[in-house]
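How a chain folds remains the central question behind the approach discussed here. In the encoding step, the backbone of a single protein was reduced to a row of integers, each denoting a local shape. We regard such an encoding as a compact summary of how the chain folds. The sequence in question and its structure tokens are set out directly beneath this paragraph:

___
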Amino acid sequence: MARLNKAKAAPEAATSKPNFFTKKTAPKPKAKPVAPKGVPSLSRWRVNFDKSVSGNVSGSRGFDDGEKITTSTISSGEFKPGNVVVTETGSKYFLE
């Protein structure tokens, strides 16, 4: 019976060479947060000294899309893109 000489494979990291024939895929971009249904969005927003927010509104029943508004003072929510903030009067806005 002949004995087969099986060579041990070298560790992948030690012998890996660039493979130019392998298709590399770019990482998938993170999904952009979307405003909850019925909550207007504010783009190009900034926080004012009195903790109100100014920006361009969209998706509001009371304002035209793109109209520049200033909210009343924000009572809850974090001033970060992707968050919903609530004003003292109860209005909600999604910060883009």
User: Anything to note?
Assistant: Strands lie at 41-47, 53-58, 67-70, 74-76, 84-87, 92-95. The radius of gyration is 27 Å. The chain has a mean pLDDT of 86.
